[in-house]
Amino acid sequence: MCEVSLVVQKFGGSSVADADGVKRVAKRIVEYRKAGHDVVVVVSAMGDSTDDLIDLAKEVSPLPPARELDMLLTAGERISMAVLAMAIANLGYSAQSFTGSQAGVITDEAFGRARIIDVTPGRIQEAIDKGNIAIVAGFQGVSQNTKNITTLGRGGSDTTAVALAAALGADVCEIFSDVDGVFTADPRIVPTASQIGTISYAEMLELAASGAKILHLRAVEYARRYGVPIHVRSSFSPHPGTWVTDEPVPPEFADDVKKEAMEQAIISGVAHDRSEAKLTVVGVPDVPGKASEIFRIVASEEINIDMIVQNISTTQNGRTDISFTLPMSDGAKAMKALEAQRDNVGFEDLRYDDQIGKLSVVGAGMRSHPGVTATLFEALKDAKVNIEMISTSEIRISVVTRADALDDAVRAAHTAYDLDGSESEAIVYGGTGR
Ligand code: ASP
Ligand code: MG
């Protein structure tokens, strides 16, 4: 009765952490194949092996050349793809593995954070037409101009999977990880977080951009652009996961939809981020053009900034303080670049603070419900959490707090929006959280 569908299945590093994991994943893929479906698999490097390769590179060179670092890191996915193909062969099914380049993942030349500009999956299509299971190395591609090997940035295998799903016209892109789906908050912080049944691309984008690590931001962007339904689920359990789509879930996947899904809440989830720092430029002359000078300096270092606040200066009249948040990993670079221009810009001082946390509440319902912001601020007041910065989009409110207040803030917001489930549902099946 069931028509043949094409599914792209992506397995993350924690799902293939060791030989047993690889065998378990191989069985799961074969079961799907047995049901008559075509399967293309995208696999990440085993366990923490990408981190281990980075550590190795740093042992031989403090600043490894970007081209060589990418070449090294792609080795992690080559190992897992070949081993997985062997495990599938051992179950009596034929599988062929392909590097990103062989799979036609064409990127720009930005080593370490390359963007996919085209996917030409001719060899993959051929492999599945012949009845094989195709296994593709995640997170890697080949530069269109130079033919150098590139990587897509940490966590990029999700993006490989969605891009292949789009190029092959797959019915769904399944992202297997070590939790059952997308939760209303990180279950490690909020044990009563509940699993989301279905979420729109726009909301998932905001959650991913606000620190939720379950899906790579670019993968969600790509899925939205090409209308690829994503099903986030656990490779360790058979439970239905979370669907990311703006359309109803296709009827052939009805069994894969969580039955007791909550009614659409105003707020879909609470995300948090500990990876940012706050930089304050103190005593900036309060005249036109100074903000543009400051942010041009930061931009020329290719640093993405997030929130900005400008205040009357704490030091003297006619001056202002400008604070902004940026990835902690870019903090030293930004401080150095600004310091070098201190006299040109005419500011008095720089302050750097990496003891901050960011909380974001996301929900399409806030567009049409007044009072969502007030509820958040009341909850934070009751939890005695001080708000240092605020930013909003149409469907998101973010605040910066002290780092050590962040967990309390997340729990308070989660409760205030009635997101707590009755019992703790979330099981983290694998992974080291590294
Ligand atoms: N192996 C790469 C990483 O650890 C890519 C991925 O896992 O998606 O970042
Ligand atoms: Mg990984």
Automatic annotation (TrEMBL):
<keyword id="KW-0067">ATP-binding</keyword>
<feature type="domain" description="ACT">
    <location>
        <begin position="361"/>
        <end position="434"/>
    </location>
</feature>
<keyword id="KW-0220">Diaminopimelate biosynthesis</keyword>
<feature type="binding site">
    <location>
        <begin position="10"/>
        <end position="13"/>
    </location>
    <ligand>
        <name>ATP</name>
    </ligand>
</feature>
<feature type="domain" description="ACT">
    <location>
        <begin position="279"/>
        <end position="355"/>
    </location>
</feature>
<comment type="similarity">
    <text>Belongs to the aspartokinase family.</text>
</comment>
<dbReference type="InterPro" id="IPR005260">
    <property type="entry name" value="Asp_kin_monofn"/>
</dbReference>
<dbReference type="GO" id="GO:0005829">
    <property type="term" value="C:cytosol"/>
</dbReference>
<feature type="binding site">
    <location>
        <position position="188"/>
    </location>
    <ligand>
        <name>ATP</name>
    </ligand>
</feature>
<comment type="pathway">
    <text>Amino-acid biosynthesis; L-threonine biosynthesis; L-threonine from L-aspartate: step 1/5.</text>
</comment>
<keyword id="KW-0028">Amino-acid biosynthesis</keyword>
<dbReference type="InterPro" id="IPR001057">
    <property type="entry name" value="Glu/AcGlu_kinase"/>
</dbReference>
<dbReference type="InterPro" id="IPR054352">
    <property type="entry name" value="ACT_Aspartokinase"/>
</dbReference>
<dbReference type="InterPro" id="IPR002912">
    <property type="entry name" value="ACT_dom"/>
</dbReference>
<feature type="binding site">
    <location>
        <position position="77"/>
    </location>
    <ligand>
        <name>substrate</name>
    </ligand>
</feature>
<dbReference type="GO" id="GO:0009089">
    <property type="term" value="P:lysine biosynthetic process via diaminopimelate"/>
</dbReference>
<dbReference type="GO" id="GO:0005524">
    <property type="term" value="F:ATP binding"/>
</dbReference>
<comment type="function">
    <text>Catalyzes the phosphorylation of the beta-carboxyl group of aspartic acid with ATP to yield 4-phospho-L-aspartate, which is involved in the branched biosynthetic pathway leading to the biosynthesis of amino acids lysine, threonine, isoleucine and methionine.</text>
</comment>
<keyword id="KW-0547">Nucleotide-binding</keyword>
<dbReference type="InterPro" id="IPR036393">
    <property type="entry name" value="AceGlu_kinase-like_sf"/>
</dbReference>
<dbReference type="InterPro" id="IPR018042">
    <property type="entry name" value="Aspartate_kinase_CS"/>
</dbReference>
<dbReference type="GO" id="GO:0019877">
    <property type="term" value="P:diaminopimelate biosynthetic process"/>
</dbReference>
<dbReference type="InterPro" id="IPR001048">
    <property type="entry name" value="Asp/Glu/Uridylate_kinase"/>
</dbReference>
<dbReference type="GO" id="GO:0004072">
    <property type="term" value="F:aspartate kinase activity"/>
</dbReference>
<comment type="pathway">
    <text>Amino-acid biosynthesis; L-methionine biosynthesis via de novo pathway; L-homoserine from L-aspartate: step 1/3.</text>
</comment>
<feature type="binding site">
    <location>
        <position position="50"/>
    </location>
    <ligand>
        <name>substrate</name>
    </ligand>
</feature>
<keyword id="KW-0418">Kinase</keyword>
<keyword id="KW-0808">Transferase</keyword>
<dbReference type="Pfam" id="PF22468">
    <property type="entry name" value="ACT_9"/>
</dbReference>
<protein>
    <recommendedName>
        <fullName>Aspartokinase</fullName>
        <ecNumber>2.7.2.4</ecNumber>
    </recommendedName>
</protein>
<dbReference type="GO" id="GO:0009090">
    <property type="term" value="P:homoserine biosynthetic process"/>
</dbReference>
<dbReference type="InterPro" id="IPR045865">
    <property type="entry name" value="ACT-like_dom_sf"/>
</dbReference>
<keyword id="KW-0457">Lysine biosynthesis</keyword>
<dbReference type="InterPro" id="IPR001341">
    <property type="entry name" value="Asp_kinase"/>
</dbReference>
<dbReference type="InterPro" id="IPR041740">
    <property type="entry name" value="AKii-LysC-BS"/>
</dbReference>
<dbReference type="GO" id="GO:0009088">
    <property type="term" value="P:threonine biosynthetic process"/>
</dbReference>
<dbReference type="Pfam" id="PF00696">
    <property type="entry name" value="AA_kinase"/>
</dbReference>
